[in-house]
Amino acid sequence: RHRRKRVAGYQFEPMPGRGPLFGAIDEEALKTSEVAMRSMFADGLRAFVGVTVHVSTLTSLEGRSRLLQVMQRFDPHLLRYRIFKIAGIAPGFPRLYLDEAVGAVKARLPHVILKSAWDEPDLPSLVRTDPAGMSFALPTAVSGPNPLVPREDLLKRLRMAVTLVHAHRRPVYVEGQFDAETAQRLVGIGSDYLSSPLIWNPSRKPKSV
Question: Given 41, 43, 59, 127, which is the most exposed site by the fewest CB atoms within 10 A?
Answer without folding.
Answer: 43
